[in-house]
Amino acid sequence: MSANSFGSRDTLHVGGESYDIYRLDAVPGSARLPYSLKILLENLLRTEDGANVTAEHIRALGDWDPGARPDQEIQFTPARVIMQDFTGVPCVVDLATMREAVRDLGGDPAKVNPLAPAELVIDHSVVVDLFGRPDAFERNVEIEYERNHERYKFLRWGQTALDEFRVVPPGTGIVHQANIENLARVTMVRNGVAYPDTCVGTDSHTTMQNGLGILGWGVGGIEAEAAMLGQPISMLIPRVVGFKLTGQLTPGTTATDLVLTITEMLREHGVVGKFVEFYGDGVASVPLANRATIGNMSPEFGSTAAMFPIDAETIRYMQLTGRSSDQTELVEAYAKEQGLWHDPAHEPVYSEYLELDLGQVVPSIAGPKRPQDRVALTEAKETWRHDVRGYVTDEVDETSDESFPASDAPAQHPNGQRPHRPVPVTLADGTQTQIDHGSVVIAAITSCTNTSNPSVMIGAALLAKNAVEKGLSRKPWVKTSLAPGSKVVTDYFERSGLTPYLDKLGFNLVGYGCTTCIGNSGPLPPEISQAVQDNDLAVVSVLSGNRNFEGRINPDVKMNYLASPPLVVAYALAGSMDTDITSEPLGTGADGQPVYLADIWPAPEEIQEVIDSSIASDMYTEAYADVFAGDERWRSLPTPTGNTFEWDQDSTYVRKPPYFDGMGVSPEPVTDITGARVLAKLGDSVTTDHISPAGAIKPDSPAGEYLKAHGVERKDFNSYGSRRGNHEVMIRGTFANIRLRNLLAPGTEGGVTRDFTQADDPKDAPITTIYDAAQNYSAQNTPLVVLGGKEYGSGSSRDWAAKGTRLLGVRAVITESYERIHRSNLIGMGVLPLQFPEGESADSLGLTGEETFSITGVTELNERIPDTVRVSTDTGVSFDAVVRIDTPGEADYYRNGGILPYVLRQLLHS
Question: Is 745 left (phi over 0), alpha (psi -120 to 50) or beta?
């Protein structure tokens, strides 16, 4: 029950029902607030308790100064939590471990339950092992169950043992698409109170729901666990960027082109840590699916959230996706009563302003390694020829006016092994072909970003139809795949009669889930992979996803491009990034004539006609009718019982982590850090993909050696993501990305460092794996630090980027700047995030990473948050590092050694 200092509690009558609400207009100044801050304001009104949330906090939000630097901490309590299986499994592992820890400290283990609704969608485990064949989906699902039965059995235990926890089984859809199509409430009702649906998730693309008017964002697994256990999320009242939309998209452009344009604009503007909110006359012309596409990419442009307010389009979409009339009536009535309904004539006050005329958007792709690097489609070939120079070792004429390749003459490889010529390949079916730099070896319609969007999915299918009718086929070296976000997509492909054309081009259904976009692309055909490796080819993937970071998509693929689903199909036809698909033929038709992209690109009217005739609410109702029950495979899995989980000591998937080992009822005082060594010295834009284990497990890696030692055959290694419930695997894969460049070991790539325990003189320290070095430091009780550059920890909200860092023995990370989620996660694991003084870096301070570090002033955190601490080295370098513990709540987590020990102690004391 709220303290209700503002007398805001009232009653709303809708369709014969009465609901308690907390009126926003009870707070002076609320009418001028941006939509997203109004949702935060309602959250504070409803959760006011006089301690964590006070009248002063509410008043501060009502008096929000849009131009001020954020400095007011508030406590945000999400209405629910959503998870995917890669990040969700460790959450359930931690809850199971907490139950044991509470029991061991004399408490009741049954008290450890989600206090807010929590839903987990198993969507990250399917791998594209098989493709381009009618049984690809069925076989991939079978293989998925074979690989993951231990994890799935564990989740079945969680589903039965934990209250307020539900699991959407495999083969159903992508978490964020399932969220917007079915799980999202938009307006919640609980204990007779109606309030805005807010949701945090263990995946950075939780922001896809922002398109439905739902405030929420991706958090680390540890932060999500705390939210599930009733802990509010500490945050500063953010700056809000108003993004005005005008006009309409022109024919030939897609939602993907729009979102890549917005991503480029917002990255350039700088929105890290801010809310973005779309408003203006153009909002009404943006379909809900396009809004979700934009919201989905919020992590790519760096904002915390990217909000669209509720309007008539929101209601139309809810009706289309099978929500009940009672629910849609409540959403509309509540939004209008609370001033949360979009009024294009009303312009809220914003901190900063941007504007885009939708008519200025042009067809685009993004790459070769960052989502914000938009390239106009007309310039794609030329830009690729320029960028490929950074990925090849062939000699090119740097003085030539030409781009790559420099000339038609054989440019010799520096070691003389191979001339720059296409490489012949004989495929498994006997087809003889050739590949070269720029060959598109993966073309994947994948990821929640676009597969939730009927216009681009129907567009891709119609383009496939037109291509087949012209007599075109995909190039033989292209691995094609179709992984929709929900079964509704294949339903409308079937209903419209378009499935056979996608199949004909090799875009057979491979699964419902995240595949290529998260690195589950599966292996390339062996003969293609061998040719790429033997000849060091810079081959390409084109995917309709949101992430194209280095090393993410496939270990053989150096350059990765984001594109709309229709363009994915087009590049599968062209087969090379060294083709200007806007002006050069995609191939030769059955009549012997060249076929151009313009010849097969579907008209907007054609796409709309198929949407109108093939998509209806009954498809969503049927697809989600029994969404938590699962198929026969899921229902037949054995289900463990009991308040606590019985750990299998032989399991290589699910093991009890050591987070609570030796923990007391009260925390020990915080101490300074002395005699620390540098585990890694890293550059700019190191992402959580570089830090956290992801993708395939290599046999000769520490994780691979561990699995072999535990009797796991190479074919059963599975991926790091699938083994997130086993900390032994995960710490061995932390900082082990094949593209990581540790400047402490110059000239190397991958998870290696120099081990200073193995030499008297640091300059003689041998190179070894990061895991082995960390073990040696641990044996000597030597604490570790990591040095980084700008935007450290950008990308996904991977909790293992922080968990692995802590379990390797890292006590502090010192960088030039952080992305929000990873900084928060480091604190959540008891790692101290520090920043170099403004304008300084490791290099400018002369730090090589060979030094021994001491960090003093940390003990002040026992009483307060100091602005800086003193960092000193044995070589005489010293500086004041900025302490990036930004709120009192974060300080409490750090004092307790992390968020989980803090929550556990709170449970015991309650």
Answer: beta
Question: Residue 245: which residues within 8 A CB-CB, separation 6 or more?
Answer: 278, 279, 280, 281, 282, 283, 285, 286, 355, 356, 358
- DSSP annotation string for 268-328: HH--TT-EEEEESGGGGGS-HHHHHHHHHTHHHHT-SEEE--B-HHHHHHHHHTT--HHHH
Give CA torsion, residues 290, 296, 297, 301, to 10 deg: 120
Is 523 inside any structural domain?
A: yes
Write the CA distances from 866 to 99, 796, 811, integer angstroms. Answer: 34, 29, 17
Which residue range(s) make up the domain with 826? 673-690+742-909
Q: Dihedral sign for Cα 74, 78, 84, 86, please.
A: positive
Long-range contacts of 863-869 (CB under 8 A, 24+ apart): 864/891, 865/891, 869/834
Q: How far apart are CA 38 and CA 216, in angstroms?
A: 13
* Model confidence pLDDT, tens digit, residues 554-579: 999 999 999 999 999 999 999 999 99
Three-class secondary structure of residue 168 per DSSP: strand
Q: 398: Cβ–Cβ under 8 A, 6 or more apart, which residues?
A: none
Q: What is the pLDDT of residues 498-516, one digit of tens each?
A: 999 999 999 999 999 999 9
Residue of 460, 462, 454, 451 lying closest to 612 (CA atoms)? 454
Site of tokens 């060979």: 850
* 45 and 91, same domain (yes or no): no
Contacts of 839 (CB under 8 A, 6+ apart): none
DSSP three-state, residue 452: coil
Q: Tell me whether residue 19 is in a domain.
A: yes
Looking at the fold, whether 603 and 466 belong to one and the same domain comes out as yes
pTM for the whole structure: 0.83
Do 277 and 221 share a domain, yes or no?
no
Do the beta carbons of residue 70 and residue 162 sit within 8 Å? no
